[in-house]
Amino acid sequence: MPDLVPFEDITHFFEDFVHTAWRLETQRGYASDLASPNWPRFQRGETFGYNPENSWHLNVREQTMQGKRFERVRLVDQPPTEGQRFLLASGLGNVEAGEDIRNLFRSDAERIGLPDYDFWLFDSRSVVKFVIDGEGTTLGVHVLEDAESVVRACQVRDAAWHYAMPTREFEAQVPSSA
Predict the structure, then answer these.
(1) Over the stretch 73-90, which tens digit does the pLDDT of each residue have?
(2) Which InterPro entries match (predicted)?
(3) What pLDDT score was predicted for residue 144?
(4) Partners of residue 141 on adjacent β-strands
């Protein structure tokens, strides 16, 4: 396994990719969400939309306007955890920015054999695999470009994408989530 590197060292991938940036999110909650200024807003029941001052939204919009695709599949428990409900609510702004976010119940993910770790797949060539502790804190990432890792990530992407539901459709099945 390659060295563990800080997430900040790979952020260039989010601008340098040529065609697709695809993410699998498997966690029940992320420490970074608890530290987000949006967490208290979520707790108050506020809604989230596209925010041009949000650097993620700005980059997604810039990249998708160039014809690139940002896509992600989030695993969701039944019922969703508070962290997953936050992601469903806050993800609406990402969708408005141009990201295609889909959701898949964890039980379906387990049935089709998806892994229990998070990763980004860039251009079906580079895998950025997260190392996350039990508290939901990202400790770093491994950048993998060997054929076996990339092919496995592509297989996971294809299976997850096939079974996952677009955000709005998923919300209709989990009305209390956003």
Answers:
(1) 999 999 999 999 999 999
(2) DUF6879 (IPR049244)
(3) 98
(4) 5, 130
DSSP string computed for 120-178: EEETTTEEEEEEE-TTS-EEEEEEE-SHHHHHHHHHHHHHHHHH-EEHHHHHHHSGGG-
Quote the longest CA-to-CA distance of the chain: 46
Residue 129, Ramachandran bin (φ over 0: left; ψ between -120 and 50: alpha; else beta): beta
Q: In angstroms, what is the C-alpha Rg of the chain?
A: 16
Length of the chain: 178
Rounded distance between C-alpha atoms, residue 153 and residue 158, angstroms:
9
Tell me: the pLDDT tens digits for 45-60? 988 899 999 999 999 9
Which residues neighbour 65 within 8 Å (Cβ) at sequence distance 6 or greater?
Answer: 98
Q: Tell me the C-alpha to C-alpha distance, in Å, between residue 171 and each of 45, 76, 78, 84, 85.
A: 15, 11, 13, 12, 10
Average pLDDT score over the chain: 95
Is the distance from CB of 83 to CB of 33 less than 8 angstroms?
A: yes
Distance, in Å, from the CA atom of 11 to the CA atom of 99, rounded to the nearest integer, reads: 17
> Which pLDDT value is given to residue 178?
44
